[in-house]
Amino acid sequence: MGLTGFGVFFLFFGMILFFDKALLAIGNVLFVAGLAFVIGLERTFRFFFQKHKMKATGFFLGGVFVVLIGWPLIGMIFEIYGFFLLFRGFFPVVVGFIRRVPVLGSLLNLPGIRSVKSNHCQTYKN
Questions:
Q1: Do residues 20 and 26 lie in contact, with contact meaning Cβ atoms separated by under 8 Å?
Q2: What are the transmembrane regions (predicted)?
Q3: Residues 114, 92: Cα–Cα separation, whole Å
Q4: Closest Cα partner for 117 from 95, 100, 102?
Q5: Which end of the chain is more exposed for a tag (fewer CB within 10 A), N or C?
């Protein structure tokens, strides 16, 4: 969990410092390594290389590669798109968890935000 947390921290810090390629590269390596340690190497490999997730994996790992070769802005755009495609199934779970947090839950239950979330989840159910 620590490696994944440090990876997210370095990615965030690298973006704040105007896409510093060294910090983003360290963040990418730590995030992927942390993910592999948390869920295991075999499950990580199976997660990334499922047939229906190959496009998402290509964008995410391609973005990591592009950051490592020195184009951080373009690489991060690819990574964010790939990350969204890879983990979009987890977003409703995260929103459900955040709804239970006292202050954040009341914000997510506001009428305008609640209707956006419910329409978005209906799209995934269809």
A1: no
A2: 6-39, 59-84
A3: 12
A4: 95
A5: C
Q: Tens digits of per-residue pLDDT, 24-68?
A: 999 999 998 998 999 999 998 998 899 999 999 999 999 999 998
Instruction: Give the length of the chain.
Output: 126
Question: Of 114 and 47, which is predicted with more confidence?
Answer: 47
If phi > 0 it is left, if psi is from -120 to 50 it is alpha, else beta; for residue 80 that is alpha
Collapse the DSSP code of 58 into the 3-class scheme (helix H, G, I; strand E, B; otherwise coil) and give the result.
helix
Give the model's confidence band at 102: pLDDT under 50 very low, under 70 low, under 90 confident, else very high: confident
Q: How far apart are CA 44 and CA 16, in angstroms?
A: 28
CA distance 88 to 90: 5
